[in-house]
Amino acid sequence: NIAPNIAPNIAPNIAPNIAPNIAPNIAPNIAHDKAGRFYGRSLWNGCGGDRLRSSLRQHKCPNPHPKLHLPIHRLIRGCIQFISSSVIFNSSKQQFPKEQKIIPTVFLLEFRECSSTLPIVMILCIDAVLTDEELESIATALQTAPFIDGKTTAGWYAQQVKHNMQLEGGTVAEDMRSLVMSALQRNALFQMAAYPKVIRPPLISRYTVGMSYGSHVDNALMGGSFPMRTDLSLTLFLNSPDAYDGGELVIEDTLGHHPFKLAAGAMVLYPATTLHRVAPVTRGTRLVAVTWVQSLVRDAGDRELLFELDTARQSLFQNHGKTPEFDRITKCHANLLRRWVEL
C-alpha cells in the first residue's frame, strides 16, 4: 500500500538528481570490475531500482549487475525509509594524501517501511587491506603450517555447525596475527568506521571441500579472564575467489541473506549481532582471517552516523577546503564523539 501512493512521488526526484552524478564514479571502480570481484547485492526493491539501473546503463556503466548493492544513509520521506545496509569502497584504484581523505562511492538503493524497531545494519567492504607482498608472504607461510580442528575456538552451540580448520598456535600464527593487526591499524577506512578500542587476536581459518560454518551469532563476550564486548566482526580474505567454489560469507538481516566473496586482501566489516554463515566449499581451498572488535562507540546506529558525518566533512574539505560549513560539521562530529565514546 505504501509504494503506489508515496514511492512514485519520491523516486523521480532521486534518480535525476543523484544517480547521474554518481554513476560515472561507479563504472570504473565498482559496477564493472575486470578482476570479476563482487562486493554485495540488493533486491532492488521498490520503483527506484529500475530507474537507478537504467541510469547506470545511460552512463555506459558496462554490465551493471542486477543485484549490485550500493546503499547509503537513512532518509525519511513520508512512510518510506532508505536504510543503509552496506557501503562499498575500492581503495586499490585511489591514491590518498597523507591525511587519507576517504570518499566512499555510495548512493540510495533500498525502500523500506518506517519502523523504529528495524535494526540499522552497516556492512562495509574494504579492498586492498593487505598488499600483494603480504598476501604472497601469507600464502607461502600457510603452505606448510599446521592446522587444527576449528571447533576448539567455537562456542558450545556453534561447535555443532562449525566445520573448518584453524592455524595452530606457534611462531607462524603469531607472525600472521601481527601482520593482520598491522594492516588493520594502518587502514584509515577501518579506523573511521569501527573506532576500535580492542581487537581480538585474529584467527586464520581454512576451508577445504565439504567444509562450512552453519548459521550462528558470535559470542557477545570473548577473552576469558580479560573479556571484551564484540561489537563488530570482520572477515579478511587471504586467497583469490577463483581458488575455490562456494565458501561465501552469508550475512542475514531483515532484507534477506547477503553473500560476500571478495578478492584476496579485501575485508568485510559487519555487526557481530547478525546471524551469519559460511557456505560449503565445493572446490579448492578458502583461506580467511577473522577477528572481532570492541568499539569505542557501542551503538551501531551511532557509529553509522559518525561515519557518514566524517565522510561528508572530508568530501567537503577536499572539494572546497576549510569553509565555515566544514567547521560546523567538524564541531558536530567532535561533540557527538564526546557524547558517545566509552573510554
Short description:
This protein has helices spanning 2-5, 7-17, 19-31, 48-58, 132-143, 171-186, 188-194, 300-320, 324-340; strands at 75-77, 80-82, 86-89, 112-113, 123-126, 147-149, 162-163, 165-167, 196-199, 203-207, 212-216, 221-222, 228-229, 232-237, 244-246, 249-253, 256-260, 267-271, 276-278, 281-284, 286-295. The chain is of the alpha+beta class and 343 residues long.
Topology:
Layout: H1 2-5, H2 7-17, H3 19-31, H4 48-58, E1 75-77, E2 80-82, E3 86-89, E4 112-113, E5 123-126, H5 132-143, E6 147-149, E7 162-163, E8 165-167, H6 171-186, H7 188-194, E9 196-199, E10 203-207, E11 212-216, E12 221-222, E13 228-229, E14 232-237, E15 244-246, E16 249-253, E17 256-260, E18 267-271, E19 276-278, E20 281-284, E21 286-295, H8 300-320, H9 324-340
Parallel strand pairs: 3-5
Antiparallel strand pairs: 1-2, 2-4, 5-18, 6-8, 7-11, 8-10, 9-21, 10-21, 11-19, 12-13, 14-18, 14-21, 15-20, 16-17, 16-19
What kind of oligomer do you see? single chain
Query: From the alpha-carbon coordinates, what is the Rg to the nearest angstrom?
Result: 20 Å
Unreliable stretches: 10-118
Largest beta-sheet details:
9 strands, mixed
**Which shape, going by the Cα principal axes?**
globular
**Amount of helix:** 25-40%
Q: What structural class results from the helix and strand content?
A: alpha+beta
Mean pLDDT rating: 76
> What's the number of helices?
9
**End-to-end separation:** 46 Å
